[in-house]
User: Fold these one by one.
Assistant:
Number 1:
Amino acid sequence: MKNLLKSIVENSKEYTKEGKVASYIPELSKANRDALGICVVTLDGKEYFAGDFEEKFTVQSISKVVSLMLAILENGKKNVFSKVGMEPTGDSFNSIMSLEVKNPQKPFNPMINAGAIVTTSLITGDSSEEKIENILSFTRKITDNKEIGINEEVYMSEKLTGNRNRALAYFMKSNGHIDGDVEEILDVYFKQCAMEINCRDIARIGAVLANDGVLPWSGERVISRETSRIVKTIMVTCGMYDASGEFAVHIGIPAKSGVGGGIMASVPRRMGIGVYGPSLDSKGNSIGGIKILQELSEELDLSIF
Amino acid sequence: MKNLLKSIVENSKEYTKEGKVASYIPELSKANRDALGICVVTLDGKEYFAGDFEEKFTVQSISKVVSLMLAILENGKKNVFSKVGMEPTGDSFNSIMSLEVKNPQKPFNPMINAGAIVTTSLITGDSSEEKIENILSFTRKITDNKEIGINEEVYMSEKLTGNRNRALAYFMKSNGHIDGDVEEILDVYFKQCAMEINCRDIARIGAVLANDGVLPWSGERVISRETSRIVKTIMVTCGMYDASGEFAVHIGIPAKSGVGGGIMASVPRRMGIGVYGPSLDSKGNSIGGIKILQELSEELDLSIF
Amino acid sequence: MKNLLKSIVENSKEYTKEGKVASYIPELSKANRDALGICVVTLDGKEYFAGDFEEKFTVQSISKVVSLMLAILENGKKNVFSKVGMEPTGDSFNSIMSLEVKNPQKPFNPMINAGAIVTTSLITGDSSEEKIENILSFTRKITDNKEIGINEEVYMSEKLTGNRNRALAYFMKSNGHIDGDVEEILDVYFKQCAMEINCRDIARIGAVLANDGVLPWSGERVISRETSRIVKTIMVTCGMYDASGEFAVHIGIPAKSGVGGGIMASVPRRMGIGVYGPSLDSKGNSIGGIKILQELSEELDLSIF
Amino acid sequence: MKNLLKSIVENSKEYTKEGKVASYIPELSKANRDALGICVVTLDGKEYFAGDFEEKFTVQSISKVVSLMLAILENGKKNVFSKVGMEPTGDSFNSIMSLEVKNPQKPFNPMINAGAIVTTSLITGDSSEEKIENILSFTRKITDNKEIGINEEVYMSEKLTGNRNRALAYFMKSNGHIDGDVEEILDVYFKQCAMEINCRDIARIGAVLANDGVLPWSGERVISRETSRIVKTIMVTCGMYDASGEFAVHIGIPAKSGVGGGIMASVPRRMGIGVYGPSLDSKGNSIGGIKILQELSEELDLSIF
């Protein structure tokens, strides 16, 4: 496995030159475009690495999966999905028009920004500090990594430039889609996006989902089998921004990407995978990361279809 | 004239029962649904009244005309219309979708909320206090009424419930359509909407526009003839929310309505008209006010078409 | 007047180089880009010309005004406006999205293609031949020109390439917005757009509207004063495609343009104007024609605002 | 298995009363609302039945899967997906707005009507007769049923009332998204939707897909493994109209429904399933059919997630 990963990372390196590091948040543009790494965590707890697997990056949209798991854990499936849907949408991740044009009772799904802001608004805690501590603590548990914290520069950068997310949140507030103080909810949201992780951390999250909600390293159940299945399903239909359909067809693994360059993937009953490569394609997905996952899926026949 | 106005107000009274007082801002719902009044100011400065012409109400969207006049005065036509368009739109006044779907360089016109927020952002002043003082002072001048102030309850009510306007403003901020601090701009905007006026005040504004920018009572020019014409034209195409086309066809007078129940109308080279009736139709226009203007237009042949 | 027109045409010539002849219908692309002409018809029946005023061109969207006049004459205002609205829209002339997104009971207005197809569907006649004869006969009457006929090459060209209009018509058929056979209605519509006219013809139509529905050359009333006013109002709010607002602000005359290069304008109680210049701006309006109207409006103070 | 199917059909019967038979095509409204049946075909070719499994119905949108398989077989994956995308969309199946609003290079996916019309346009044949014969012949092969033909009443009914599909097709013609004669393409499309099948037929199609493109009853390969995977993936993300996400979460099997009341499902490497129940929910999916699949999926642990 180790050699396979090493050779796949090598093969995928050349593609990083075709993409661009995210620039909409100034802090993200400082990433090293050529970095590329992978970690695989199998269900017996073994871990395999290659490339820049120890490089830290911010979790960004991959945190939408974490907050969804936690929100269901704390509120129940029924309550969460009364506030946010589970249907894919052809809109881009930060689109606002569907909230008005289609006038839905709730945002389409928890992987677009509007839906993720709703999910975050459901996390328990008496203050925004308590809420983000709650998310951090859950993230540390499912990554078995007590060191995970927030990158303050990225958080401040998101907060300063997050006006599109403010527009989404105030629109939903005006429609009654979210309760609570908008700026507080956004503060938690910006912080959860700025959690700093590496390939291993997200590979472990993928492994927990692959293992139907049980931590492979301890046997402890953290979420139900049903929640685990729901989350993987939504990752397939909505996890890769507006390239989700293409990713499902070509690679066929539940996955969630973030503009920090990470992709967290979960092969049901087999393994969790974390890849990192901050050079992004036009849809906002790691260009090298997708190449790695495609080759790995073909080599190990990982498609669920 | 006085008898004509009196009989028209009487004739229009019955229609007030078919509408509803605005309720989206809690404070507005306290208005007396049956109130109805009119004031006409001719270009020689004569003033005629009937009905509840002295009842005070908040100016609401009629302030969009005032801030447009002032913004052009301070910044020039070219600068203002580089930031906001002059095309009518079939969207409702608080719509956000066109900002994304049609991705325009600027909001469609200064009479929809998005455009009016841009106009307000262009008013000069070193602080939000100075800006609203600037607007108040200009309003007092074109109404010849030094008493005009802000209804604090309505302002607070708008501020508390103005999340749709926040969504519009943050969306435009994220697209670079507005400069400056969003909450400060909105604060000025909420205050300008909460200016308290009566029929006479808006009739005088209409008379200034009808008189090509010269105050009828003093002969002083406050805005250019061209600005005056621009403003009246935009009132025709966009002044009555998404009933502007129908109003133009049936009544044919440049006019601007507000959900406080006022309609300010300007008959070029003839007169300014202010009507008040807080009972609104489904488009947000004063139901009795429209009836009054329709009968008056027919009686005095006021249509410009 | 004659000298004024001549000098204005001269001044406007240079602008024709900045535009392009319409090419979406292949036949239209054969027009001479530099042609430019004008005709003015006053209410006492006097006619003044300059430039290429005798050059023939197809009426295109200006026919929407003719079919609207005729449809109201035959069906009454109430029936017509139960099928098509009178509100301006920020959409482009051939847009289909609003029919679905806003799901209106009827197309927004008779100047966008969807609305004009509805208007044409209301013209009386037992067959498409009778209907187009009906339109031709009415057009000949209001232009006092018995020679007006259909340019068969343009008609065939429109029919062959009119798939966007077919999409609009079948969409409205599926929603119940239009009755009757879609291909027959479209056949009449394509033919009415292919009527061949010159500047004088459209200047006369403008003069009939300016004269409140009475033919200036014979004193015969063809449409009511009210219909005449309705038509002029809709020309102001919707006549110049999505540049209607700007045209109203800068020129202030009810007008309707066509991609054949014509603009028909009507100054209430003063004159009708026809201009021709097939070089179009990006909105589909005659670029030289707009310059001519702007200069003429300023020289003679024609704005209604 | 037989007893399991029987009891599941019994349990699901009560739900048929909550839905409605399709009525937008008059012929469909004649179906028996209470009918409910199932057929399961395993990869060793065994077939199990329960309920009204022999009742015939029209295939409707399930034919979109058949024409997609055939179009890829004849044109190659690359050519097909250069003309139609593979992304899910939150729009309803017959939506036209995205073709204009998002102005994509191609319709979003082959399961919405716009995309399916494109797929059909790619089927080879010198005439519409040859094309539909081609589709029929392929359908007979993958169902091992030489009797499959077209229900002429339903076909005529679709043709007469198919104006929304005409609108979609002419819109795409005007944008260059489809080649060829629109009415001919629609004729083939209406006929493919009117193919008459029963539960067994669609269960066999599901089994071919589950078997990676090899006919279970003969071992003959009809489509490649890759095509088979692509088709199943698109069924997951887009197969159940705008309830695809919810179906994936709750049931987790690639499936495609039709308004005739059928659902064709394919459990990778395990079985094909056909269910029939013409009582539909508000999204257009068989209400009893979904209940059957949900219970079966739970009983046999069929979810791929």
Number 2:
Amino acid sequence: MNEKAIYDLTYGLFLIGSKAEEKENICVVNTVMQVAGSPTRVTLSCINGNLTPELIKASGYFTAAILDETVEFDTFKQFGLQHGSDVNKLEGYDVEHDVNGIPFLKTNACSVLSCKVISCQDLGSHTLFIAEVVDAEKFSDSRPVTYAEYHSRIKPKRSTKETPKEIIGWKCTICGYVYEGAELPEDFTCPWCGHPASDFEPVYKE
Amino acid sequence: MNEKAIYDLTYGLFLIGSKAEEKENICVVNTVMQVAGSPTRVTLSCINGNLTPELIKASGYFTAAILDETVEFDTFKQFGLQHGSDVNKLEGYDVEHDVNGIPFLKTNACSVLSCKVISCQDLGSHTLFIAEVVDAEKFSDSRPVTYAEYHSRIKPKRSTKETPKEIIGWKCTICGYVYEGAELPEDFTCPWCGHPASDFEPVYKE
């Protein structure tokens, strides 16, 4: 089995908005796809243990803003590399709300889908939601960004400069998992989200 | 609701191989996505009424060959615009078989995933399969093709030349649905697969 074959799958990139009671959150995922028509249905897969799947299960709704080619790494740092349980990621942003009262951002997005969950299934590492698209808005004709572009163009390249700082671990930039140790094996894959060593960044001794 | 927002979702393109008893088939889809890790799981959505979902339900297995940038329209004509119930689409092709005995083609593909179904759900127009990736092979480092490229570069453009032939209907190039009538409304969406008028091609009077 060549694990690298899995990385040839193609994805877009999305900001998923969720809300339950007073708590609102937005996180980055690459896992939204249309799976049926009349009515239009999509799937969304979210890493378990994060705030987003909990809020979606509690309310039964989410938004999926489709990120476009203008998006930069700051968006991924803000909404992908922090946990909604620790910080209010939406503070200072121009947040709008859809027909179901769920937050979304128009910034760097070409469209937003308003989704109502019809079923969810626990797949161990992730929860898979199947949802009906109950509303949809298009903001621009800009080109949707792909996950391949995130890897090739958007995320910062690892510095090749020698650094005097001591590496004590490696953090998965996709899901936040931390590997403890100075050297990450080349063939390592993240036990939480299955991504390869190239998606990890060093954690330095403070 | 702006239906066009749905077309901003990003997909790859795949040849799905299936087999039950002596019948083998390969068809084109754009709906394969990783949804969980450890074990690696993917979803696949297939249009109901076609041969592929029937064969997959019968055997519990499928292959997903990930098409690369070298693919041309002939592949879509052969495996996407014909029905496996009517013709043997594999005749004359250099078909290989995976660990589960399921057919796949290496031509114009960078990788193939061997998948074992763990659940399936009827979503009306489509069946959604959740499957574990039990084997995977990478043939080349060529770049996976996207569904957006199919629309922008691969599929033939509608001819703008005047034609003396009489149009009697419009056929969906995605799923084969035929609309009867000389004029297809601009805002028409396929009742089988949800794709827009731009995905239809004319059917001429013989």
